[in-house]
């Protein structure tokens, strides 16, 4: 706080600080309710449940179709784990979630007065999540729920070189094709990591991409035709 000549602070500044402190404590208490391990950490499932329960309190997400809720949760939670789970342990400390601007970006959707530009630039908005999901479905030419190297190469009208895509598929933990088990493919979560790395190119996490995630024998389920 800035002190005046008598060592005092404006009441309005103290009030704003108290309000922010109260909001932080309330949010921490809410997040702790989803700590399934009781150890101060949240898994993907924990955070997805938090996001699902938060939806009715976010005016910006009014009208979100039930069929899209699952993929919205996956999309939303992936940003937390891309930036806050650098070691790919599959969990995030609650204190890190609270200190991250990512949580505030999500909670901004509580405001009913967000402009169209605000919504377009917010990863958690319905418009943004639907666009990412639509792009994935468009790339998935054979509609098997995952992306092959040739399908990903079509991203942004074919802006990726074959050498880049081949190298990317060598580095990330892809999954065997369900049809022949030969061709490795990328599921929706890995695609979200790829999108986030491209959106935030100057961040430490993007510069360290691709980060190999924990082995997962059950890739993200086959996306249904776009419910939006």
Q: How big a fraction of the residues is strand? A: under 5%
Strand tally is 4
General shape: elongated
List the secondary-structure elements in sequence, H or E. HEHHEHHHHHHHEEHH
Low-confidence stretches at least 5 residues in length (pLDDT < 50)? 214-218
Distance between the ends: 47 Å
Radius of gyration: 20 Å
Mean pLDDT across all amino acids: 88
The structure class reads mainly alpha
Helices, by number, come to 12
Strand order in the largest sheet: 1-2
What does the largest sheet look like?
2 strands, antiparallel
The percent of residues in helical segments reads 40-55%
Summarize the structure.
The chain is mainly α and 228 residues long. It contains twelve helices and four strands. α2 crosses α3.
Q: What is the secondary structure topology, with strand pairs?
A:
Blueprint: H1 11-32, E1 41-43, H2 44-54, H3 66-84, E2 91-93, H4 94-99, H5 101-107, H6 116-121, H7 126-139, H8 149-152, H9 155-158, H10 162-171, E3 175-176, E4 184-185, H11 188-199, H12 204-208
Antiparallel strand pairs: 1-2, 3-4
Helix pairs in contact: 2-3, 3-7, 3-11
Describe this protein's structure:
By secondary structure, the chain is mainly α. Helices cover 53% and strands 4% of the residues. The chain contains 12 helices and 4 strands; from the N terminus they run H-E-H-H-E-H-H-H-H-H-H-H-E-E-H-H. The protein has helices spanning 11-32, 44-54, 66-84, 94-99, 101-107, 116-121, 126-139, 149-152, 155-158, 162-171, 188-199, 204-208; strands at residues 41-43, 91-93, 175-176, 184-185. The N and C termini lie far apart (47 Å).
